[in-house]
DUF4192 domain-containing protein
Amino acid sequence: MAQNKESSPVPVQITLSGPSDILAAVPYIVGYHPRDTLVVLGLRGDTPRLHATFCRELAPADADTDCDAAADRLAAALLDEECSVALAVGYGPAAEVTRQVDAVRSAAERAGIAVREALRAADGRYWSYVCDSPGCCPPEGVPYDPSVSAVAATAVANGLRAWPNRDSLRDHLAPVGGTRRALMRAATRAAEERGARLRGSGPPRGRDAYGPRFRVEGARAVRDAVAAAERDELPEDPGRIAWLGVLLGCIRVRDEAWTLIDPERAPSHQRLWRHVLRHAEPAYRPAPGSLLAVSAWARQDTALAEAALERVHEVDPDYSMAALVHRALRTGLAWRGYPSESLQAVWPLEDP
């Protein structure tokens, strides 16, 4: 994987001194403004630092959902990441949030994980599940405005962004439809036939079922597409897009594209692989989706990276590159590959 140390993001460190800071930080940690979502932050170390982030959409209060089982899995994941402290925030109505937060707190207690804060946020107010003092946590909730927080200002000043919500991310990656989809379907069939002929033009070597000519053609096509994207030129011909997708089916060709991604050129890669992902037929989405995730990760846009990985998971839950990137994102690895975070949240040793 290409690395550019000079342009790699420098972790931003903030101290979460209370509920308002947590609520201001969460959108920049997860990359979007949560809605109807449970967010759990796992911290570890003597001075607890953010290490793992877990998000899941809330199930309706009347849904047949086993909150206890889900909470046990979450606690096990926190233990796997050696997190000894957790912060939980549920965004949504009390009927949906409370039962899930209660389950998380109970599972964490059984696992020996300290839940230092557990909040519900809705309509510009928050309520704490760990504080029952009417002086600081009145029954009507506490007003908060994350947009005026120093935490949010620090995040924005350091280039972090938060998408409006998860739906905006899904819309950003929605597959093309209509006539364009029909053209891509026909172009993909032709590209598959072309690929079969190219694979059959020379004997494969070892476990490489594609053969050297396929790899050479794939590497050339990838480099040409990346160079064009750097000139703000994206492939519009369905045949070119479909051929690129078929070539990326070869792991060595895909990895050729991967090695070209670095933070400086990541915006061009992000535009290119989003374009290919939206046009590709389902069987050919895992490679461009994973490449999009890597390029978004290099730009510290973890929410877009996760959304791209969701597209991959829809068609191939076992795609290995996507699994590797997902693991890195969940544990907060920065682009340079060491355990860090784009936003290093530190919880005080003493309660404020």
Notes: The longest helix spans residues 178-199. The longest strand covers residues 49-57.
